[in-house]
């Protein structure tokens, strides 16, 4: 791909307001996890930026923001909006249900006595896989808030960039 092709691809990506704002909402959710670590737990732990679980759910922010953006741009009676809402509910249910249960199983597995492993202790399983309902709710509010505000006020991030170029 030529440099002109890459520039066109980047321009098209930034001009897709729903996608760009939804990714920004997802990023804000991840950054807010670090801010919560700093303010609530009083510790610097940048690893939370790439971990699953925690407050708020970045997956919920991404998918609910995407669904809201599709509704804004296509209309809420469009079948694509219906599909995006159905997928959003599945992802958010999975985050607070199935993934949370898998984390609980990991916790129990990690709590088993070391004697069971005959000297070969398995690596601890990740326990914080899913989200509480509150974490999912927070993400599902953050996503549409960022996306709808972005679309209503700016359209796409490309409009902001073009003002400075």
What percentage of the residues does DSSP assign to strands (E)?
Answer: under 5%
Assembly type: single chain
Shape annotation = elongated
Radius of gyration: 20 Å
Structural domain tally: 1
Largest sheet geometry: none
Counting DSSP H or I runs of 4 or more residues, the number of helices is: 7
In terms of per-residue confidence, which ranges show pLDDT below 50 for 5 or more consecutive residues? none
Rounded mean pLDDT is 86
- Give the helices and strands as they follow along the chain: HHHHHHH
> Count the strands?
0
Distance between the termini: 24 Å
Main structural class: mainly alpha
What portion of residues is helical? 55-70%
Keywords: Plastid
Pfam families: DUF212
InterPro entries: DUF212
Organism: Paulinella micropora
What secondary-structure arrangement, pairings included, does this model have?
Blueprint: H1 3-15, H2 17-40, H3 58-74, H4 79-96, H5 98-110, H6 133-153, H7 157-164
Characteristic terms for this protein:
elongated; mainly alpha; Divergent PAP2 family protein; 165 residues; DUF212
Provide a short characterization of the protein structure:
The protein has helices at 3-15, 17-40, 58-74, 79-96, 98-110, 133-153, 157-164. By secondary structure, the chain is mainly alpha-helical.
Structure description:
It comes from Paulinella micropora. This is Divergent PAP2 family protein. Keywords: Plastid. This protein has 165 residues and is mainly alpha-helical. It has one domain. The protein has helices at 3-15, 17-40, 58-74, 79-96, 98-110, 133-153, 157-164. α2 packs across α6 (133-153). The longest helix is centred in the first third of the chain and has 24 residues, at 17-40. The protein is elongated and about 65 Å long. The two termini are 24 Å apart.
């Amino acid at each position: 791909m030529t440099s002109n092709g890459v520039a066109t691809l980047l321009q098209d990506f930034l001009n897709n307001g729903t996608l760009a704002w939804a990714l920004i909402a997802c990023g804000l959710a991840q950054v807010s996890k670090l801010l919560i670590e700093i303010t609530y737990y009083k510790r610097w732990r940048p690893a939370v930026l790439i971990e699953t679980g925690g407050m708020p759910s970045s997956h919920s922010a991404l998918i609910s923001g995407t669904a809201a953006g599709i509704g804004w741009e296509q209309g809420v009676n469009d079948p694509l909006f219906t599909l995006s809402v159905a997928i959003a509910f599945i992802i958010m249910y999975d985050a607070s249900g199935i993934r949370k249960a898998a984390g609980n199983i990991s916790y129990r597995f990690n709590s088993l006595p070391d004697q069971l492993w005959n000297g070969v202790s398995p690596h601890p399983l990740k326990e914080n896989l899913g989200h509480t309902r509150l974490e999912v709710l927070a993400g599902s509010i953050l996503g549409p808030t960022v996306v709808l505000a972005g679309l209503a006020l700016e359209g796409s991030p490309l409009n902001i960039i073009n003002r400075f170029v």
